[in-house]
Amino acid sequence: QWLSDRKKRALQKKDVDIRRRIELIQDFEMPTVSTKIKVSRDGQYIMAVGTYKPRIRCFDTYQLSQKFERCLDSEVVTFEILSDDYSKIVFLQCGRFVEFHSQHGHYYRTRIPKFGRDFSYHYPSCDLYFVGASSEVYRLNLEQGRFLNSLQTDASESNACDINPVHFLFAMGTAEGRVECWDPRTRNRVGVLDCALSSVTADTEIEGLPSISALKFDGALNMAVGTSTGQVLLYDLRSSNPLIVKDHHYGLPIKSIQFHHQLDLIISADSRIIKMWNKDTGKIFTSMEPEYAINDVCLYPNSGMLMTANEAPKMNIYYIPVLGPAPKWCSFLDNLTEELEENPESTVYDDYKFVTRKDLENLGLAHLIGSSLLRAYMHGFFMDIRLYHKAKMMANPFAYEEYRREKIRQKIEETRAHRVQLKKLPKVNKELALKLIEEEGEEQQVTRKKKQKNLPSLLKDDRFKVMFENPDFQVDEQSEEFRLLNPLVSKISEKRKRKLKILEELEAQEQEEEEEPEGKASDAESSESSDDEKGWVEEVRKQRKLLRQEEKVKRQERLKEDRQTLLKPQFFEIKEGEEFRSFKDSAKKQKLMKKTLGDRLKLEEKLGTLNVSDTTVGSKQATFKLKKSEQQKRQQEAEKQHRQERKSLRRSASHLRSKRGRGRLFH
């Protein structure tokens, strides 16, 4: 579905499987968007409306193709098939128009006073009931061909309506979150349900007033109501309280409600998800989340087929065998599903590469999340294989060379496998492998005597293969844990080491087949292995003594190194405006910082930098004297000297002026 039309055509020519793929109805799609989809009562015709341009398409299930297509003047809000086939259809359009179509095409067009949102057909009286952006319910009689007196309701606006198929009770859902029920015979209101109040439960979080967005009757007594906040309420008409409240948890208006009688399921859908749940318990049966927003859902009668109108050109068809059999016009689906269950096959995407979020971060493509280049799928994304190869080449340019070397190495190993194989010990954990070979030989002899089945060897088991190939799994026999846990193994391991040396010498001298060291252990070895607890305790003590001696030697070596090392002088940089006194000042500061606030305040009170006094209100008042840095002190001293010099200059100048004045008076 992600491929272009050109690529699809090219694949159809090449790939046989694609040519064999099933397209139930040919060109089952709209130019841009499909809004509503319905099935005729005889089950032969599927009708869908959509845009752009506004149109209706009728598909014949017997021919598995399109029957006809008619373009309309304005977009269709909803439509109803009045006859058993496609011969009588009514459309409610956006521009307040009601359009009637017959078998040949357009028949008649009229207009209602206010914009309509939904309508229902009352079969006994041939009345159409229109609800919309008005408090009135308009009635149009198709037998007389005229409007009748409208029903006056208490609602400001109405969104949905439905007529019960058994006793023909008319119900309408209002914008205030109520359902009003009317009797068409007397044209009187018989009851009101407050669904907005009932939809609020302990778990739900509602921001605004829930209005009614969908309505559907089931039998004589049951009715399902969908709200604009994503709740579905199931009512028994004899009670004002709902039997069950089901929340979709998306906060989106419920678009469609359908009943599946065979399994007692309710199929409710908002624009994001289709949920199937049990009407008695509320337990989820299954859910489907299409790629595009859902506009309408249609359940094909007495089958397990489901059709959806989406915000996309293609209209989806789902077949769920658990819900029921396939329709008679596509009965081959049952055989196909049985074959698929017997032979499950994994889907392979040749043109796309599946990557996780971690892979994208490694490739440096995490910024593409949310763009059209990545398509979200399960726990990762699908991206174009060409883009993936380019990004990988840029992220790791030598990856191809490494891959080539690895492939060459694998090919060489494959050719080596066909040669005459020698019984050789592995490169890693040779002693452990020798021990396992010895034990295996002993077990084989025991099983031969007792006639038991041989147990699988660790050396041949693929799960433990890496332990004898990867050097990271090498057993460190000099570690403290190994020496304390395996004290009795030490003597046996010495003998094995001798055997290993002999084997290595043989390998170096002769590159021929070698006899694997098998057979029973010696008497001394068996006696040591079956030693009592005293021997084990003595070995542990010896190992501990050896460990202590090794630690002493290490300490002495460290001391020698410390004595030999010469301490080099370290230089520290002092900030501008500060004088270095001693290291004691920094130590004092660190000690002060460790003390509590109370202790520091007491110290500062003693030094005279802090003054604490009681106020009239009863609280405490503290005044601080900030410590001045050396640079600030120098500046203050310079300012003082400057002021004194200026004062002395002023005095000398005034003294000179007074002398001159006296001299003039004397002359």
From TrEMBL:
GO terms for cellular component: 90S preribosome; small-subunit processome. It comes from the Eukaryota. SMART domains: WD40. Residues 461-487 form the NUC153 domain. The keyword Nucleus applies. Keywords: Coiled coil, Nucleus, Repeat, WD repeat. This is Nucleolar protein 10.
